[in-house]
Amino acid sequence: MYISNEGLLVILFVGLVAGWLAGKIVRGAGFGLIGDIVIGICGALVASLLFPKLGVRLGTGLVSEIVYSAIGAVILLLVVRLVRGGGRL
User: Which stretches are transmembrane (predicted)?
Assistant: First the structure.
């Protein structure tokens, strides 16, 4: 699979915005710039696997991808908080 430089920048931008947004929604769960990008990209992966199985469709475009990724990142942060934080949400 080939990803162009522009495609990589879009993925990193969406990951950064989604990770930052998820860190703000799940208060106190930010992991810094690189950590937020990783959480955002992993959140996009979680959302892309979970939402089609649930029948959830938000549309197309960059904004919908950010929303998808942010929701997936919030789910991921809640799971990480459950595992690391001793069960407290």
Answer: 6-23, 30-51, 66-83
**What's the CA gap between 80 and 41, in Å, rounded?**
15
Q: How many CB atoms lie within 10 A of CB 66?
A: 19
The pLDDT of residue 87 is 52
Contacts 24+ apart (CB under 8 A), 34-38: 37/12
Residue 17: exposed, middle, or buried by beta-carbon count in 10 A (0-12, 13-18, 19+)?
buried
Low-confidence stretches of the chain (pLDDT beneath 70)? 1, 3, 28-30, 85-89
Q: How many residues does the chain have?
A: 89
**Rounded-to-integer distance, Cα 47 and Cα 27, Å:** 20
Residues 6 or more apart in contact with residue 40 via CB below 8 angstroms? 14, 15, 16, 17, 18, 19, 20, 22, 69, 70, 73
Cβ pair 67, 21 in contact under 8 A: no
